[in-house]
């Protein structure tokens, strides 16, 4: 109560304090909340010189310094030696922002390379431009690990002038195959990629989904539409040549050597439809006779007319099994040809 009654100036003289002193430093000309030596200005840390605010323990506090470096001319959030500009890493030069720990921070550098002139997300030697891989030269974006990153290269080719999805030695154009020449798109693995080629033959001038030697036209089977594996696909064959004949100029459902016309049987001549296995298929024949000039449901020698039985001569219908079928014979006597004989 006695001290409260005294004059404040007199009280400061009694206490030996020229200024307000909330801490326990030597000189209280200004507020000093830490234990510095010189309190000419506010000093929240424990440094030697308190000319400006210093939240760390630096030697020189001319400007704000949040770390423990020697020179606090500018804001420095790390612990380096030179704080001319903001430096978030611990390198020796803080001219510009540098998020890594290399020796040169001229520009933003998110990786740990030697030269950070431009943004470099990988660990290349030269980071002039963005480089997401680990190439030697990062002049342009390079997603692979080859030696030349002039253009985008998503594979591991030697030359990345253009996008190359395979691993060959020439990336001039997109090449989805793995051949030696990528001038155009090539989805197979042939040696020539001038045009799209979905098969694996040696000539890719046009689309060829089979594996023959000639891809001049679209051929979903083998050269032209040909679902069999013969050697000649000169014309479109919607029948897909379900047999495996030699010549597929026309539909051939059997497996003979001549497919000029539809032949459902397996004889040697397919000029006309032949559902049986006769030698001559000039006309439709459902049986297996030797001569198929006319419809023959039985297996007679001569099929000029319908013969539902198995007689030797089928000029007329013969329901029995005798040797002469000139007329109908419902009984089985020895003479069946002139008239009906019950």
Key words describing this protein structure:
342 residues; little secondary structure; 4% helix; disordered C terminus
Structure description:
The chain has 342 residues and is low in regular secondary structure. Among the domains are: 1-84, no CATH class; 223-252, no CATH class; 261-342, no CATH class. The chain is 4% helix and 0% strand. The protein has 2 helices and no strands. The longest helix has 8 residues, at 8-15. The C terminus is likely disordered. Residues 24-174, 182-236, 244-342 have a biased composition (Acidic residues).
Report the strand count.
0
Q: Rounded to an integer, what's the Rg over CA atoms?
A: 50 Å
Describe the global form.
rod-shaped
What is the string of SSEs from the N terminus onward?
HH
Query: Sheet bearing the most strands, described?
Result: none
Percentage of residues assigned to helices: under 10%
Strand content: under 5%
Structural class: little secondary structure
Low-confidence stretches: 8-89, 93-100, 102-144, 148-166, 170-190, 192-254, 258-265, 267-320, 323-331, 335-342
* Terminal-residue CA separation: 159 Å
Average of pLDDT: 45
Oligomer: single chain
Number of helices, where a helix is a run of at least 4 consecutive DSSP H or I residues: 2
Region (Disordered): 21-342
Biased composition (Acidic residues): 24-174, 182-236, 244-342
């Amino acid at each position: 109560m006695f001290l409260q009654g005294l004059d404040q100036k007199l009280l400061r003289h009694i206490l030996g304090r020229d200024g307000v002193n909330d801490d326990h430093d030597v000189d209280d000309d200004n507020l000093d909340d830490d234990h510095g030596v010189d309190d000419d200005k506010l000093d929240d840390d424990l440094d030697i010189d308190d000319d400006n605010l210093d939240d760390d323990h630096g030697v020189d506090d001319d400007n704000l310094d949040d770390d423990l470096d020697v020179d606090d001319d500018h804001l420095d959030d790390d612990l380096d030696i030179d704080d001319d500009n903001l430096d978030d890493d611990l390198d020796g030069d803080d001219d510009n922002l540098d998020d890594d720990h290399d020796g040169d921070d001229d520009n933003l550098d998110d990786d740990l390379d030697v030269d950070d002139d431009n943004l470099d997300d990988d660990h290349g030697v030269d980071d002039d431009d963005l480089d997401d891989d680990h190439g030697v030269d990062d002049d342009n974006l390079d997603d692979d690990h080859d030696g030349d990153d002039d253009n985008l290269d998503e594979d591991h080719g030697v030359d990345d002038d253009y996008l190359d999805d395979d691993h060959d030695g020439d990336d001039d154009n997109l090449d989805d195959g793995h051949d030696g020449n990528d001038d155009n798109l090539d989805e197979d693995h042939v040696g020539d990629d001038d045009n799209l080629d979905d098969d694996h033959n040696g000539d890719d001038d046009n689309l060829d989904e089979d594996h023959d030697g000639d891809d001049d036209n679209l051929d979903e089977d083998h050269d032209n539409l040909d679902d069999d594996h013969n050697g000649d696909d000169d014309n479109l064959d919607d029948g897909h040549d379900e047999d495996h004949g030699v010549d597929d100029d026309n539909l051939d459902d059997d497996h003979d050597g001549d497919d000029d016309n539809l032949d459902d049987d397996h004889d040697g001549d397919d000029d006309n439809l032949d559902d049986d296995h006769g030698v001559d298929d000039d006309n439709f024949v459902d049986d297996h006779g030797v001569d198929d000039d006319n419809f023959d449901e039985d297996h007679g020698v001569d099929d000029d007319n319908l013969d539902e039985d198995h007689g030797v001569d089928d000029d007329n219908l013969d329901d029995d099994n005798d040797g002469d079928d000139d007329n109908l014979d419902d009984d089985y006597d020895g003479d069946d040809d002139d008239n009906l004989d019950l």
